[in-house]
Structures are given as C-alpha cells and as structure tokens.
Amino acid sequence: MSSDIVLHYLTALGYLGLGTVIWWALYKHVEINKYKPWYSVSLLFLIIIHGVAIHMTMLHESHITINWSLGLSFTIWIGLMIYWLESNFIKAYGFLLALLPIASLVSFLAAIFPPDSETAVMVIKNNTFLVHLIISLISYSIIAVGALQAVIMTGLDRHLHRPQDFSKTPSIWSRALDAQPPLMVQERILFRLIGIGFVLMTLAIITGSVVSMNATGAILPRDHKTFFTLISWLIFGVLLFGRIMWGWRGRVSLRWTLVGFGLLMLAYTGTRFIFEVLLHRG
After folding, report:
1. 30: how many CB neighbours lie within 10 A of its CB?
2. Distance between CA atoms of residues 253 and 36, nearest Å
3. How many Cα atoms within 13 Å fall on the side-chain side of residue 41?
4. Do 64 and 122 meet the contact criterion of CB atoms below 8 Å apart?
5. Helices and strands per DSSP (H, E), number in the chain
6. Which residues is 123 bridged to in the sheet?
7. Which tens digit of pLDDT belongs to each residue from 6-25?
C-alpha cells in the first residue's frame, strides 16, 4: 500500500473522529464552540496531512494525475482550508457538522479508488498549461464549497420558516441547524466564495484559450466540458451582477448557485466518475 493511500486513510479516520466528537457534544447539549482552540489545532493538523496525501498522489515532475475520487479529495481539502481561515474571524464551528463527515467519506473514497491505468494523466507541456490547470482546479473547488454552503443555507432557511413547538426538546438535527452561523453571515460568505470562484473561472477560461490556441489554433475546444463551463460561468456572472445591481439574495440566489455548480460538476468530476467507474474508460 502506497504512502498516499495510507495518508488518505489516516485523514479519513481523523476527520471521522473529530466529527464524532463534535456531533457527540451537540447530542449532549454542549456548546460546540467551547473547544475552539482544540478544534482549530486538530483540524489544521489533519488538513496538513490531507494536503501531503494529495500532493503525493497528484503532482509529479512532468505530469499531473487526477481521477474522480482525487478530484473530490482536492475539492474538500480546499473547502476545509477556507473554513479554517473563516473560523478565525467568525464562530463557524457549526459548518464542521456537515464538512467533517463529507471529508471523511471523500478521503476514504480517495484511498479505496486511487489512480490506476484508466486515470487521466495530464502532461505538463508548458507553464501556461500548468497555471491553467491549477486555476481550474481551485476555482472548481471554491464553487463546490459555495454549493455546499448553499445547501446548508437552504436547510437553515426552511428550518427557520417552519413552525416550532417549544414544548418539545429540539431534535439533534434542529440543534445542528441552530448551531450554524446566522443566515446573513452565511450569505456574505456565499457571495464571497462565488465572487472569488467567478474571478478564477474567468482566468481559467482565458488561460484555457491560450492553451487551446497554441495546441489546436482554436480559441476554445468544442467539447461538453467547455460548454458546461461557459454556461456555469455565465450563470455566476449574472448572479453576481444581480447581487450588485438589485441586491439579489435569498432562495433565488441559492437555487442558481446549485444550478451553476451542477453544470460545472457535469463538466469535471461527474464526467470522470461516469467514464472511470461506470464505463471503465480513462
């Protein structure tokens, strides 16, 4: 068993353990922000190990290796780093209730389904291609984190608008939603993520055009990945424009965030999963 697989197993167990501690605290009606220093240090340690595992698997001297499970692992790793940075400014430990189980599952998948002979291997021909690839991966990951944020906000919005029976003890799911940061705070985080992701997507499209021109003479490749990426980019652009001009917010912005991410997922991780797992093709 290679070192990167072992590290992914270790991070999966670590995320599972930390997540179990926080969910148990919630179950026991303990304020989850009580152990903030311990949470922060433990999470940072796991993020570092996770990053080393991804680096060992993905980055090589002359090429980059990536499959659907490694792509998901990279995405959740970026999400956890963003969360860790945000948690130093706001009380956002409620996000861990969703992030840690997902991170544990994704890390297990990366260990169980490591790159093989069917995995895409992208040869680094020049620095422009390397920059394009890195920007694309990071922009996709940030938009994915924004989509997860939108899912959490949707659940919290429905919870707040549902009639509450205060004579009964709140369920653990209700307490998990109550532990989330206020909707206004989450909305600011969401549009910050969308804004950063949109800028990076724009840079990815520009650098991708340069790579395509050098390789084939066409401004952009005519394939499904480019089509879905451009539609997703347009959706996020309109969403940000509407936010600035007319103050768009609430359920409309959440729905379009999920639509935009769904299209982007079809272009990248979803396609790799279909080809590598369902069709057994690289």
Report:
1. 12
2. 31
3. 3
4. yes
5. 10, 2
6. 63
7. 999 999 999 999 999 888 88
- Specify the pLDDT at position 117: 63
Give the number of residues written for the chain.
282
Single-letter amino acid code for the residue at 9: Y
Is residue 5 classed exposed, middle or buried when 0-12, 13-18 and 19+ CB atoms within 10 A define those classes?
A: middle
The residues with which 59 forms a beta bridge, in sequence order, are: 64
d(CA 74, CA 4): 13
Distance CA 170, CA 175 (A): 6
Q: Whole-angstrom Cα distance, residue 190 to residue 113? A: 31
What are the residue ranges of helices labelled H in 92-126? Answer: 96-112
* CB 125, CB 212: distance < 8 Å: no
How far apart CA 88 and CA 97 sit, in angstroms, is 17
d(CA 146, CA 194): 6
Indicate yes or no: pTM above 0.70: yes
Q: Which of 20, 17, 267, 2 is nearest to 110 (CA)?
A: 2
